[in-house]
Design a protein that fits this description.
Length: 524
């Protein structure tokens, strides 16, 4: 039997969100519970399992899955230490030996073969994100792979999959034999990426010798041009996909999460070939060229908040729904979700249309629960998680609905949890008040709480991009708002201090040095 270890650890953070993430923000599955869960959802691990299941000689060894309920702020130091220890203990429990050979420098060299007794694990698949960050670790994914390499030995192939918003560090490539990443944004290829990772791992087990070329590109990008089906980014992404279709082990583009301000934050292209460094270098540079020639288009034209609300007023007599995109408070990108900036402006300007707004405020939700359905309450909402940017707004409304906050996602049918959640109707404004942040890249939260966005004159959408049918295809007006928040597309206002400089668009006259770094490992 070929025994393949499965590990998952996924979270995306905004280091500009002052509310720290905690251990309890993760859903943990161990052992067979990991397999049982991932067979029910179309994510990366589920995709990998669908490939491994086709091979009777493969035994899947589930170690641990740790998935954040949604993105958030930097992971607290003690909580990262606890999570890290749990993951490494789960890996250790599957092995018989520990290889302590140093693996810190593998660039341009082959590793010394592991002379320790073999472990019962023949290969490992890691489903990671790439944009985690903790108070005491800038590169959690690289750290996990480094420690996994130490535990599993130098001969054990390790393949890892990533979100394309990940940050591709050298430490990741020093310790993983090969990687792959999503090819779509908005992301619709979770499952397919897992399948690609599994097939990649099988190719390595069957004798492929991965060599990876990585290219650093000094750019942080946002906007519609990153939509992989229609945007300018498609040229680079399609080139990567074509390489894979024509025999490359893997290829892709990481354009990072500009809200995770860490020393390696940038855009990276990569190509993995079977023992052909010249091809990997040439093609990684070509993908980078395709990106760089378009990068100045990759920003969001933002409408000032007061102007956006004025447009919403003007749209009222014309009918239809105005969508105000508050991507600066995008919980799926790591923001706190407690922005009330648009709510405040609607109230201040006397907006009379029916408005639907999500907001995170556990105290306001509790007040609604304490009062009960049908009660009229006066509460202060917003500004509790990110008080440096937002101050509470007082509203009076009727408690319309209360729920435990457990519901299935519209996009992937996963179980999501927003904590105790209340729907409060304050005159013409309907607030869906959650106790904890939940992803808002589809309509799940609204539908689960009895609210159909199409029945409102105005909806606040706290996500930079949703699949078009969610909102954009039917909206009368669709406006990207320049509001404050930890995930603002107005990148210059965030205050980066740790990422490489100069970098576009934070700096003027940024130039790019075309250069690839080669990484290779030996598993023989």
């Amino acid at each position: 039997m070929i025994r393949i270890l499965i590990v998952e650890c996924k979270q995306e953070v905004s280091t500009f969100n002052p509310a720290l993430s905690r251990y309890d923000d993760f859903v943990i599955h161990r052992g067979e519970a990991l397999i049982a869960h991932h067979r029910t959802v179309r994510n990366e691990v589920g995709g990998a399992l669908s490939v491994f299941d086709q091979h009777p000689e493969i035994e899947v060894v589930p170690a641990i899955s740790a998935r954040a309920i949604t993105s958030g702020g930097t992971l607290a130091a003690a909580d990262w230490t606890r999570l890290r220890n749990d993951i490494l203990a789960a890996i250790r429990d599957t092995t018989d030996t520990i290889d302590t050979t140093d693996t810190t420098d593998t660039t341009e060299t082959s590793d010394t073969p592991n002379t320790n007794a073999p472990t019962p694990i023949h290969a490992a698949y890691f489903a990671l994100h790439g944009a985690m960050a903790a108070e005491n670790e800038d590169d959690p994914e690289g750290d996990l792979l480094q420690e996994a390499r130490r535990l599993l030995g130098l001969r054990t192939p390790i393949v890892a999959s990533f979100d394309l918003h990940g940050i591709l560090t050298d430490r990741i490539l020093h310790n993983a034999d090969a990687i792959c990443c999503f090819h779509t944004y908005p992301h619709v290829d979770f499952y397919e990426t897992g399948q690609r990772a599994a097939r990649l791992l099988l190719r390595v087990l069957n004798g492929a010798k991965p060599v990876t070329a990585k290219v650093f590109i000094p750019a942080l990008v946002r906007g519609d041009e990153l939509i992989t089906e229609t945007g300018a980014i498609r040229h680079a992404v399609n080139a990567a996909k074509a390489l894979e279709a024509n025999g490359a082990l893997s290829a892709g583009l990481f354009w990072g999460n500009p809200f995770t301000d860490v020393p390696d934050l940038a855009t990276y292209s990569f190509v993995v070939t079977d023992d052909d460094p010249a091809l990997a270098e040439r093609e990684a540079l070509r993908i980078a060229d395709l990106f760089w020639r378009e990068h100045e288009k990759m920003f969001v034209p933002l409408t000032p908040l007061d102007e956006a609300v004025r447009i919403a007023h003007e749209q009222l007599p014309r009918g239809g729904t105005t969508i105000l995109v508050d991507a600066a408070d995008a919980t799926s990108s790591g923001a706190s979700g407690d922005s009330n900036a648009i709510l405040r402006q609607l109230i201040a300007t006397g907006y009379s249309g029916r408005a639907l707004i999500p907001i995170v405020d556990p105290a306001a939700a509790k007040a609604a629960f304490d009062a009960g359905v049908g009660a009229t309450i006066t509460v202060r909402v917003g500004g509790v998680m990110d008080p440096g940017r937002f101050t509470p707004v007082e509203v009076t409304g009727r408690v319309h609905l209360l729920s435990d906050g457990k519901f299935r996602s519209e996009s992937f049918d996963e179980l999501w949890y927003s904590g105790p959640t209340a729907v409060l109707i304050a005159d013409n404004i309907t607030l869906v008040i959650t106790s904890r942040a939940v992803s808002l890249y589809d309509r799940s939260l609204f539908y689960a709480h009895g609210q159909d966005p199409k029945r409102f004159d105005l909806v606040v959408v706290k996500s930079p991009h949703c699949q078009p049918h969610m909102f954009k295809d039917w909206a009368a007006r669709y406006i990207d708002v320049d509001a404050p928040g930890a995930t603002s597309a107005n990148l210059k206002r965030l205050g980066h201090t740790r990422c490489p400089r100069p970098i576009w668009p934070l700096d003027e006259h940024v130039t790019w040095e075309r250069r690839a770094t080669i990484f290779r490992r030996s598993v023989a």
